[in-house]
Design goal:
Blueprint lengths: L6 E6 L20 E2 L3 E2 L2 H9 L4 E5 L5 H7 L13 E5 L14 H6 L2 H5 L5 E6 L2 E3 L3 H11 L3 E7 L9 E5 L5 E6 L8 E10 H12 L8 H11 L4 E5 L4 E3 L3 H10 L27 E2 L4 E3 L2 E2 L4 E2 L2 E3 L2 E2 L4 E2 L4 E3 L2 E2 L4 E2 L4 E3 L1 E3 L4 E2 L4 E2 L7 E3 L10 E2 L4 E2 L2
Parallel strand pairs: 1-4, 1-6, 4-5, 8-12, 14-17, 15-18, 16-19, 17-20, 18-21, 19-22, 20-23, 21-24, 22-25, 23-26, 24-27, 25-28, 27-29, 28-30
Antiparallel strand pairs: 2-3, 6-11, 7-13, 8-11, 9-10
């Protein structure tokens, strides 16, 4: 057994992310670029580093190759350790019993042996598809103080959106008395963030019980949490008031990127006290040519701008040719917008090419999307809400 750890983090990163359409056709959702120089998964992993949690198991399943290569040894997040670090945990075969992860709880169940190596007192369960900065150590300390079986991070959401979330109803002491999954008529607006701290001894017993139930969906929200409530275990809510964005749809991914352009931005990526770390290939400084114009935008290293960019996020290696215009858009790494093309209210995928005089998106309407490695033909039009590519 390795050196004992107080807390081990398990990061759920295996979902397909089908609501992101063409962007996740060949890429796992946590590996999607965000904010010019990051990937979505950088946020929970950086939170672990900043919170002093140095064992992070990343559970992958759908299209894992890019995500595996990106995480590598964990060096950018200071997680390349002899006793601990970051570990990619795909489903694996044990004799004749190998199988895909059946649900969030089953994915942890299949990796109990990994957890037990560190003999932890607590296990932190995270989702790999949210943009936020959070001190998990503070949440862990709250869990310990409350002597809870599980602590669930919650944040208040608008009442009209409560039917989109798992809602936690609590007593006056913050103890959870009821869990409602996407209720039509919610009793509170405390929504689960998908961030849990479990006491490992309790978690282990409920995972085993759940696995032995053939009727279970093997899911934390549908099975584990309700079962613990029914057994009168102590579940407490931990209130989080900072920025948090679920970027599981095209619209929310675009909106979260646009949030970075507000003054001040609701999430500060320049805060040296709580850095978001990322694996970035060494690129030259970005360049804005004599005829280039940039207004209220983020331009990452390696970018070349000879056209006009307004209110947009440009990732590393993006090129905007002379006479091209990009407005209210998110361009992922190494995308190219050719002369005379106009991109508006759109997301352009990695290595995509918007050819001369092409038009992507419109002033109003849903976000247009051009998929990774897609080459639009000259003059091609991609209307609001449309997705181009394979």
């Amino acid at each position: 057994m390795l050196q004992k750890k107080q807390c081990v983090a398990m990061l759920l990163a295996g979902g397909q992310g089908s609501r992101l359409g063409i962007l996740t056709r060949r890429t796992a959702k946590p590996a999607i670029p965000f904010g010019g120089k990051y990937r979505i998964i950088d946020f929970p992993v950086s939170n672990c580093t900043n919170s002093g949690i140095d064992v992070v198991g990343v559970l992958t399943q759908y299209r894992p190759l890019e995500l595996n290569a990106y995480l590598g040894s964990g060096a950018p997040w200071d997680l390349d350790l002899n006793n601990g670090g970051i570990f990619v945990l795909p489903p694996y075969s044990t004799g004749k019993d190998g199988e895909w992860y059946k649900g969030t709880a089953n994915s942890i169940y299949q990796n109990m042996e990994f957890i037990e190596q560190y003999n932890p007192d607590y296990v932190l369960v995270l989702s790999g598809d949210h943009i936020y900065k959070m001190d998990y150590a503070a949440m862990l300390n709250y869990h310990i103080k409350e002597e809870a079986a599980v602590t669930i991070a919650v944040r208040q959401v608008p009442w009209e959106e409560t039917n989109r979330f798992g809602i936690m109803n609590t007593d006056e002491n913050g103890v959870i008395t009821e869990f409602e999954e996407k209720p039509a008529n919610a009793k509170s607006n405390n929504a689960s963030m998908g961030v849990y701290v479990f006491t490992w001894e309790k978690m282990r017993s409920y995972l085993i019980e759940d696995e032995n139930n053939p009727k279970s969906s093997n899911d934390f929200g549908k099975n584990i949490i309700p079962n613990m409530l029914s057994a009168n275990e102590k579940l407490v809510a931990y209130s989080f008031n900072g920025y948090w964005k679920d970027v599981g749809t095209i619209e929310s991914l675009w909106a979260a990127n646009m949030d970075l352009l507000e003054d001040p931005a609701p999430i500060d990526l320049h805060d040296r006290r709580w850095r978001i770390y990322a694996r970035n290939v060494g690129l030259p400084p970005h360049y804005v040519g004599k005829k280039g114009e940039v207004i209220n935008s983020l331009i990452t290293e390696g970018g070349i701008v000879n056209g006009k960019v307004t209110n947009s996020i440009l990732s590393g290696g993006v090129e905007i040719e002379e006479g091209a215009e990009v407005i209210d858009s998110v361009l992922m790494p190494n995308a190219v917008v050719k002369k005379g093309a106009v991109v508006r209210r759109a997301i352009i995928g990695e290595h995509a090419v918007v050819s001369e005089d092409a038009q992507v998106g419109e002033k109003t309407g849903d976000i247009a999307v051009v998929g990774n490695n897609t080459v639009l033909s000259s003059g091609q039009k991609v209307a609001a809400g449309e997705q181009a590519g394979e």
